[in-house]
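**User:** Here is a favour to ask of a fellow structure person. Please take any protein you like and set down a full record of it. No explanation is needed for now; the record alone will do.

**Assistant:**
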Amino acid sequence: MEAAGPQRTSRWPTCVGLVEGRALVRVIWRFPVAQPITDAYEDWETGGAPGVAWYSSQKEHLPCWLSEIDGPGAFNRQSRNWNAKNAYNHFQRPAGLLWLAEALGEGPDKLTGRRLL
């Protein structure tokens, strides 16, 4: 029988599921707006066109989206009263998730899917 490979450790601790969305917003506001990999991704995604979205940055977008998790939000959903883990798992904007991972300190090799020499 082969030995199992190394266990993958999550950067998302189990206790984060207990954090309310408002607490996640307070953490997000501590991070700088500019994140180089996210900025490059958004430039590529929009073709460099400014003003494509209603928000000026993912730092603005994420807290606004999270502020709506206690109510129907922009899409008139049922109120879910989510915690931070539920909100993270339902936020489907790649640039926002990339920004959050980059702001939290995830390395460029993981964020870009390549190893840097």
User: Anything to note?
Assistant: The two ends are 35 Å apart (CA to CA). Residues 15-106 form one domain.
